[in-house]
Amino acid sequence: MKSLVEKRKLSSHSSVVCSLLLLLFASNAWACKCKFPTVEEDFLNSDVVLSGKVLRIDSVADERRIKWDQDDFLQTVEVELELNEAWKGTDETRVTVLTALDEPSCGYDFSVGARYVVFARARKSGSGAGSSDIEALYTNLCSANHELGYDRASEALLKQLEELRTEIQQESELEQAGDAEEQEE
């Protein structure tokens, strides 16, 4: 007959093995897989690029949840930001972006009171039955989002975004000048 100590050791080992197997299978099923873009790539592909301070984070109603596939919606949070700077796509003073609730679902982890650079895309969310699609700004873990601090990396990112905005504006002005010349001819 096994002693009480041996039974506890066996039970403890079994619990650890079961927990590890559960974590292994759960992480494979829901793990977010990203191909992280460069700042320039994400700038060009985003509809809105901004920096701002997070004012609040709330869960969203069913009709605004992020669609995962044909029939499944992810738990979603909306993040309200007070803008410091917008490099692309908005002139509002406050913007709300949606993201999945957690990192395994590719949600970006925001904190109230922190400042971020956010790369967001305007998309229609798949809505629940009987509702129409709603356009909203989305971001996720796979974007080039960055929590701003008082460090060199944050300063370099802000400088790079300013340079990208200037470059895009100059290209746009050249295109407009070329279009005007074509119309005159």
Number of strands: 6
- Given helix and strand content, the structural type is alpha+beta
Terminal-residue CA separation: 101 Å
Report the helical percentage.
Answer: 25-40%
Tertiary shape: globular
| Low-confidence runs | 16-29, 127-132
Helix and strand succession?
Answer: HHEEEEEEH
The overall average pLDDT, rounded, is 79
How are the strands of the biggest sheet laid out side by side? 1-2-3-5-4
| Count of DSSP H/I helices | 3
How would a crystallographer describe the biggest sheet? 5 strands, mixed, barrel
β-sheet strand percentage: 25-35%
The Rg value, from CA coordinates, equals 23 Å
Describe the protein's architecture and organization:
It is a single chain. With 185 residues, the protein is of the alpha+beta class. Helix content is 36%, strand content 27%. It contains 3 helices and 6 strands. The protein has helices at residues 4-30, 39-45, 152-184; strands at residues 48-59, 76-88, 94-100, 115-125, 134-138, 146-147. A 5-stranded mixed beta barrel has the order 1-2-3-5-4. Strand 4 (115-125) and strand 5 (134-138) form a beta hairpin. The relative contact order is 0.16. Residues 16-29 and 127-132 have low confidence and may be disordered.
